[in-house]
Batch of 3 targets.
Target 1
Amino acid sequence: MLKKPTVAVTRKLPKQVEIKMSELYNVSLNKDDKPFTKLELINLVKTVDILICGVTDVIDADIISSAGKNLKLVANFGVGVNHIDLQAATRKNIIVSNTPDVLTEDTADLALTLILMTARRAGEGERIVRKNAWTGWTPTQLMGTRVFEKTLGIIGMGRIGQALAKRAKGFGMKIHYHNRRPCNKEIEDEIESIYFENLEEMLPTVDFLSINTPFTNETANIINSSRLDLLKSNCILVNTARGGIVDEDALIHSLKTKTIAGAGLDVYDGEPKINPEFFQLENVVLLPHLGSATLETRVAMGFRVIANIEKFLENNSVVDNVI
Ligand code: DGY
């Protein structure tokens, strides 16, 4: 039998995934789930054949250049790979894989959760009840805004954007979207959506704006103060993609001055640190990067990582090559 590959996993994964990995590989698990420091990562990549990492590990050029000659695959547990220096990996002939598809539906659910929570002021309501400060029903308490028949703008009409659009349609919403190129006609017709090539033209037309685009050099801070100023004052912004796509200082200013109505955030620039100014704002719903956090999806992500490794061991390629 061929020698089992040496595989390091940077974070604790669902039990059934860790059991399967332990059967297949000579695996080192992170039982207490403490994130590795940069130095620990540098030492780890010196000896392993395969590294399984996730969004909390910054796999930069220093780490990649420290990799031993055995490291040939970085298998990311997650779809976004902005935390990995892909150019440095390419230079070292290291393949990088990710786990698309399997988290689409749950991430779209979470975007819709944020839309509904923010529109219906669910966070504020929950805080009142939890403080035992609710004095009873009144005709004017916590009046939110309806989503039915409102317009949802989606930036990034990939898998998650489309899954969100289908859900929003079920809530009676109209869909506008901005993407590098329009979706094919079949998808556009199914979702009954309107394409805006120009983001600036779409922004003033929407009541809700959802960010569903990957974080890249092109999308960093695309929602900046001048674009926020184009939104209607009743608009609610929702971000389940990456914090750095939105200029958070500009967003805080828009929320404070009420030039937009609210925001629902699952991701933050520099997370897990969160700009404390958000905590002072009632019109914001803040979640801790829960997009793909269901047992079903996290198990499926783990098995997608395994599928990538198995293909790599078979023929030096992967199912989900991101480079
Ligand atoms: C992803 O898969 O990119 C999620 O944000 C979790 O990492």
Target 2
Amino acid sequence: MKKFLSISAFLATFICLLLTGVTEAQASEAASIHQVIETPLPIYLDASEESSVLGYLTQGDFVSAEISQSEWTYIHANGFTGYVFSSGITKAQSTKYLVNKKEGTYLYTYPSPTAQKNGTVFDKSIVNVYGTAPGGWSYVQYGHQVGYVASNSLKLPTVTKKRVNAVKGAQIHLTASPSSEEIGTITHQTVVEQYTSIAGWAYVEAGEQKGYVKASELTDPVSLGNKTYNQGVAVANGQVKRVALTFDDGPDAKVTLQILAILKKYEAKATFFMVGRNVSKNQAIVKQIYEEGHEIGNHTWNHPKLTSLSKANVKQEIDNTSNAIYKAIGQNPTVFRPPYGATSNQVRSVLSMPTILWSVDTLDWKHRNAAKILSYVKTSAKDGSIILMHDIHQSTANGLENVILYLQKQGYELVTVSEILQ
Ligand code: ZN
């Protein structure tokens, strides 16, 4: 072992490059960055201790891991490509930084200005920084590219909130380029955190979704203001009619899950106005609601009649609930519904989101009769309706399937409430 230790990774890299020539390895998707926790960590040509050792890594070195079998991980590091023991590396955490250099900044294979340049990252790009190396270097990832950049070319970004304005949602790209691969879509009306805007592109995050979207597909998150709506807009002739199903007072550990399963079965979207104290008890369900594409609304913490409370207490009811929702999904609620529909100028003055009332009351809380829900919907639902139900009553879950079947047969698309606001 001793004689191997005397060979530095740099020298080994140099020899390796001489032997094999410079090849730029391109990953098919963004690799995950790991850090070496064992010194020395040999890099093998194949996933076998019998195969040749290409070089050694030292504790703290960064590697980009491509494929992980249980015992071996295929990596790129310091110009090498090969296999290391999976136990010798651990997944690294990153922080987002903004490139703050007019001409951009070079990515180097290892932390030295004489190292091979892997590419340039443009000014105002967002990179993931996994750590630093002596001499003023930061190890970063940008799209498929990884390497070291000068730390003084980076600064912390200022994060602002935006809302997806494109009706079809905003397509996420890996880098700020139309030719870079699409890695997902952020749905209409989602509130996102924007880290930078560069040549018509914005780097945004919404929960687990992150990447570059077209800046033109975003708008100010509070453009809906704190107006009050009791119904949505009807669409122009020839377009699909829409209604918004809304569920109040949950989440409930049993009924909400039943409702989610029915919505999923019919590819219907809905809005859940949640009571804060139920949010804190059912965080996993809140996350599931969000991840399945439904909208999440604030319905106060304790369900009081807000018009009887002081302004400070109204604010507390609303803020505590928004904070609990943020804790569960990493996003604030986008809409608000006051309990009993009781609102006032004082209540609206503490809100930065729209107040949503309703145009069709199913009275499900009162009659607790699955079949009656449908009869109220049949009588009153029209294009742009906001339909009020509660996801805490078993009878509501039991009646929902027939409500959806009826509405879809009538040609309605079932959408989140923000989608029918104007
Ligand atoms: Zn309620």
Target 3
Amino acid sequence: MTAAEFAPVFKTFVEAHDRFILCGHIRPDGDSIGSCTAMAGYLTSLGKTAEIYYEGDLTHYEMIPQPVGRLDPLTVSDACRKPFAWILLDCAQPSRTGQGQICAEHCSESICIDHHVNMGEYADHNWIDPEATSVSEMLYRLFKACGYPLGQQEATSVFAGIAFDTGGFRHSSMTPEIYTIAGELAAAGVAITDVMNGLFHTKTMKEQKVLGAILRKARLYRGCIVVSEMDQADLKQAGATSDDCEGAVAVIAETKEAEAAVFLRELTNGQIRVNMRSKKYIDVAEVGRAFGGGGHVRAAGCTLEGPMLMAKQQILNELYRQLPEES
Ligand code: AMP
Ligand code: MN
Ligand code: MN
């Protein structure tokens, strides 16, 4: 489905409601925050009421302007008492929004705009485009198709979302057209240096130290899968929490020899959260789905039961299945 085809469905949906709750996925990233804030800007410009539920920390994304109020696990259930329509962005399943899934029971109508592969079609209206770099790119096209000119706030949100999901306009999902879109957004007044530095080149001192520990622990398996892991003892030793490891997988994925990169971290409940990246031929989304997670061909995740050693072996076994015979 193209943006032009989805635009009439979207317009009718927006016209039918006055109040909207927007949700991205848990542990919000640049694209889920960018798309929620861009959508909130669009809705408020039409005189609608919008609120966003984020589950997780936003401190790495302070360069993305927040045009509306933020709901938390308590206020989201209160917000569900009055009539509202639900917009799911950058995830296709209510459970991926964490506590936001309460909206599924109470909303009068729902819409989902997503670009993850094979995650189903939950909402009343779904626009899923796995070819899109990001949901932010999809919104850029959608607003254009609706004849809505993006202001500085929405342009910054959409730019940040595209930049984030393309790893700074670098991933294999990039096309010449995306550079043109980025140029157009930049011309709308995006503070490019702040956004790019904030997304990719800013870490607290603690995060830098943790990264050091993660790199020291990295090992290469079968010559082409780089793996690092942090269990609770490692985190304690580094004086860090699992949140301080966000973004580590991108750094270990820079290993020249590696086709795939895996980062595993033990959460406080003993479960193991896994981030995966690949370069040319391994489909990490397939590996994620094998363990109830998912994502994209080149970037995916999942959460497994511990202990660490078992989780690592399970992930490696799935990855090995995709290696060419001779390796
Ligand atoms: P991450 O490694 O957390 O940056 O995630 C990489 C990509 O996979 C992102 O697009 C995530 O939204 C997606 N992803 C991560 N974990 C899951 C999961 N459990 N279920 C579905 N998609 C996921
Ligand atoms: Mn995302
Ligand atoms: Mn995304």
